[in-house]
TrEMBL record:
GO terms for molecular function: 4-alpha-hydroxytetrahydrobiopterin dehydratase activity. NCBIfam families: PRK00823.1-2, PRK00823.1-3. The keyword Lyase applies. Keywords: Lyase. This is Putative pterin-4-alpha-carbinolamine dehydratase. The lineage of its organism: Bacteria, Bacillati, Cyanobacteriota, Cyanophyceae, Thermostichales. Belongs to the pterin-4-alpha-carbinolamine dehydratase family.
Length: 96
């Protein structure tokens, strides 16, 4: 498997335009998800955990009741890569 490549600021901003709800904060992709209940939020996190594990790419996230705060970046390259955008897209799809 090839090493992920850090995306440029221009590439990041262009890709963000295709990913509603996500923003760039402190050099990471960021989004706040809100669900109807704690159980729904935790269920979503469990589904995402399976996807993240299959990708070998894991989010920085926290959960408070029905809210989940997510930050994504690729620690190995010190920035945002295509892996982060792929995981962000899957998270958004699973939240629908």
């Amino acid at each position: 498997m090839s090493r992920p490549v850090k995306l440029s600021e221009t590439e990041i901003h262009a890709k963000l335009e295709t990913l509603p709800g996500w923003s760039l904060q402190a050099g990471k992709l960021h989004r706040e998800f809100q669900f109807a209940s704690f159980v729904e939020a935790f269920g979503w996190m469990s589904s995402v955990a399976l996807v993240a594990e299959s990708m070998g790419h894991h989010p920085d996230w926290s959960n408070v009741y029905n809210r989940v705060s997510v930050d994504l970046n690729t620690h190995d390259v010190g920035g945002i890569t295509e892996l982060d955008f792929t995981l962000a897209q899957r998270m958004s799809e699973l939240a629908k």
